[in-house]
Amino acid sequence: MAGVDGLEHIGAGAVRDGWEDDLLEEITEQGVSMTPTLRVETLNGDPEMRSDQLERVKEFHDAGGQILAGSDAGMPGVLFGPSMHEELALLVESGLTPKEALQSATSHAADALQSNEFGVIEEGRAADLVVIDGDPSQKIEDIQNVIEVFRDGRLVVEN
């Protein structure tokens, strides 16, 4: 599809009337991923579009499309860190399971970047880990309960 690898941002203008005929099928068949950046859209976009945006993400996911997590941190009101937690919750609200939302920020993101250095816990990969109190694969809100953060195997945050 003209060299397109991914759809970035699901802004208000792109979703009001749904997907054009055959477009959803075509892009999912070609492996085009979507990074909807729902958090920035819910803060800075048209509030009346929120349900439409969530529905388009659900349709893309239900059609077999690969969803990637991205918050567009740095935009007005979109803070580094907390905005990713909010993005994951919005992905769950749009129909992904908590586990799928986590994968959108980890292993699926690494796959999209064609990287075998991060994205999963495995020998030979980067030792960047977040230790959570709870189970965000079952309850996405638990992602906010950060106990420790390791970067390159070194403890960098301890709560």
Automatic annotation (TrEMBL):
<feature type="domain" description="Amidohydrolase-related">
    <location>
        <begin position="27"/>
        <end position="156"/>
    </location>
</feature>
<dbReference type="GO" id="GO:0016810">
    <property type="term" value="F:hydrolase activity, acting on carbon-nitrogen (but not peptide) bonds"/>
</dbReference>
<dbReference type="InterPro" id="IPR011059">
    <property type="entry name" value="Metal-dep_hydrolase_composite"/>
</dbReference>
<dbReference type="InterPro" id="IPR032466">
    <property type="entry name" value="Metal_Hydrolase"/>
</dbReference>
<dbReference type="Pfam" id="PF01979">
    <property type="entry name" value="Amidohydro_1"/>
</dbReference>
<dbReference type="InterPro" id="IPR051781">
    <property type="entry name" value="Metallo-dep_Hydrolase"/>
</dbReference>
<protein>
    <recommendedName>
        <fullName>Amidohydrolase-related domain-containing protein</fullName>
    </recommendedName>
</protein>
<dbReference type="InterPro" id="IPR006680">
    <property type="entry name" value="Amidohydro-rel"/>
</dbReference>
